[in-house]
Specification:
Number of strands: 20
Low-confidence stretches: 1-6, 368-381
CATH topology of the largest domain: Rossmann fold
Mean pLDDT: 86
Largest sheet: 6 strands, mixed
Shape: elongated
Helix content: 10-25%
CATH superfamily of the largest domain: P-loop containing nucleotide triphosphate hydrolases
Number of helices: 9
Number of domains: 2
Strand content: 25-35%
Length: 398
């Protein structure tokens, strides 16, 4: 796209960033580099530190330790309005008394930009809302309001655009549509997007790179496909989709595969896909990689087999049927079977076996942590003060 939306964003670098609040540590020694022009997702559950990270980058919080650099320039001590950053919040934060056009134009006029009106119209055309420029936010749908908020952020040409759970208030169908639109807009304007979310599908649909965050640290970072197909830790394996995990002793460690004793059976995992090759290890396989059998399958090279077991639940979900299979001595196994025929392949209570190809398995690096890394902050007064401060910061930012 020509004109004002043809510049690229800037890279973001966090160096040894730590953030402590009264009673707990939110982020611990975080090192992160986000290349210019990329769509980067910070994914994790509530309380993992992802929103605190975004607020540190925006300047709404100050780090306890560490440095923040945008485009190679340190901004650690810089005020929020002096940073080349804009934030799109879940709450939209549009001015209800202004028209859509005035909302988008507002930041430009405050900065004394000469062609503010033309740039505002250009931003609205980008999100396909120039035809509603004269309306008030209350006359728009939730999805349209979110796109106005996005246009208002993009029009300021920030080197870095921060998205704080921006689609959380939308219904499922509209959220899916907005995911595709956001990705398309990011590619068109070339800004650096840092998207904070707890929605795994949202992160995987939109981002070039995903960082899974847990208890103030990044557990694993990489392309969505890499994280899903080859998780390194139990947390990533369970948070990013579903996994069947089995723990046992390594009984053979060959050049190509590692064999693990699972309920008396030798289950293999490729050596290159296993993080540990000796002692007690945890291996896993995704539910959609499993095949359900109503008869014991023949032993074949390159195939793992578990069973017999009993189906304890069968749930029709549309595109697939989810089976829960109980094999004696093992955790409940989840199987996703694509619906190729009418009705389930097997009923609850049926005897079944499950199999999967060896190359679809993975081995994890970690062991379960006995205790939480950080103590929770149960001081309700502190939490209330923090929430109020965040609301005031969002209004100031708007």
């Amino acid at each position: 796209m020509a004109g004002s939306f043809d510049e690229s964003g800037a890279d973001l670098e966090l160096v040894g960033v730590t953030k402590r609040f009264p009673g707990f540590t939110a982020i611990e020694n975080l090192n992160l580099t986000i290349p210019a022009g990329s769509f980067f997702a910070l994914l994790g559950p509530s309380g993992c530190g992802k929103t605190t990270t975004l607020r540190l980058v925006a300047g709404l919080e100050a780090p306890t330790a560490g440095r923040i650099l945008i485009g190679g320039k340190e901004v650690t001590a810089t005020k929020p309005h002096q940073r080349p950053v804009n934030t799109v919040f879940q709450s939209y934060a549009l001015f209800p008394h202004m028209t859509v056009l005035a909302n988008v134009e507002f930041g430009l006029k405050r900065r004394g930009i000469a062609n503010a009106l033309a740039l505002a119209h250009e931003a609205l055309r980008l999100v396909e809302l120039d035809h509603v420029a004269s309306r008030r936010p209350s006359q728009l749908s939730g999805g349209q309001q979110q796109r106005v908020a996005l246009a208002r952020a993009v029009v300021n040409r920030p080197a870095l655009l921060l998205l704080d759970e921006p689609l959380g208030a939308l219904d499922l169908k509209l959220r899916r549509q907005m995911q595709l639109e956001l990705k398309s807009i990011q590619g068109e304007v070339g800004l650096t997007f840092l998207h904070v979310t707890h929605d795994q599908e949202e992160a995987m649909t939109m981002a070039d790179t995903v960082a899974v965050m847990n208890k103030g640290r990044i557990e694993q970072m990489g392309a969505p496909e890499e994280l899903y197909e080859l998780p390194r830790t139990t947390f990533v394996a369970n948070f990013l989709g579903q996994s069947n995990l089995f723990t046992g002793e390594v009984v053979e460690s060959g050049s190509d595969a590692v064999t693990v004793d699972i309920a008396g059976l030798g289950i293999k995992v490729p050596r290159e896909r296993a993080q540990r090759h000796a002692g007690e290890v945890t291996i896993g396989v995704r539910p959609e990689k499993l095949t359900l059998h109503t008869r014991k399958p023949d032993t074949a090279a390159g195939v793992n087999i578990l069973g017999p077991g009993v189906i304890i639940d069968a749930s029709f979900t549309g595109v697939s049927t989810q089976y829960l299979v109980q094999v004696p001595g093992l955790p409940v196994i989840t199987v996703f079977a694509q619906n190729m025929a009418f009705g389930p392949v097997a009923e609850q209570g049926a005897e079944v076996w499950v199999s999967w190809r060896v190359e679809h398995g993975f081995g994890l690096a970690d062991e379960p942590e006995p205790e939480a890394r950080f103590a929770a902050d149960d001081d309700t007064r502190t939490i209330a003060v923090q929430r109020r401060q965040r609301l005031e910061d969002e209004l100031d930012e708007a």
